[in-house]
Amino acid sequence: MNLELPHRDDLIIPCAKTDPEVFHLTKWSDRAKRICASCPISTACKTSARQNRLWGTWGGETNDERVAAGFIPTGWGKKIREN
Ligand code: SF4
Q1: Domain residue spans in the chain?
Q2: Which residue among 42, 43, 50, 57 is best mutated to probe the pocket of ligand 1, counting the most ligand atoms within 8 A of its Cβ?
Q3: Sign of CA dihedral 54, 60, 63, 64
Q4: Pocket residues for ligand 1 (CB within 6 Å)?
Q5: Count of C-beta atoms within a 10 Å radius of residue 4
Q6: Torsion-angle region of residue 46: left (phi > 0), alpha (psi -120 to 50) or beta?
């Protein structure tokens, strides 16, 4: 099942004005979580990231938190084996 995020042209989401790397690099996950905390669609964003097995911090949830909740990002085991 693929969750559609709400789309409205007048909806300003905080990450739209932030360097995308903030949401992809673990070293900036605390910053991403703070940004997501003020987002009006954070719950839907977190659900979408879980369902689509995404990497990064989405809806205020980091990779490690997503894995702990049972939603393992695509390629997670491969990354662990390479490290
Ligand atoms: S919750 Fe999702 S849409 Fe909202 S700021 Fe965070 S990454 Fe962006």
Answers
A1: 14-82
A2: 42
A3: negative
A4: 13-15, 23, 35-36, 39, 41-42, 45, 58-59
A5: 7
A6: alpha
CA of 22 from ligand 1 middle (Å) equals 11
Query: Stretch 48-61: mean pLDDT, rounded?
Result: 96
Region 6-15: mean pLDDT is 75
pTM above 0.85, yes or no: no
Query: Nearest residue CA, atom 7 of ligand 1?
Result: 58
Judge contact between 50 and 71, C-beta under 8 A.
yes
In contact, 63 and 70? CB cutoff 8 Å: no
Q: What is the mean pLDDT of residues 48-74?
A: 96
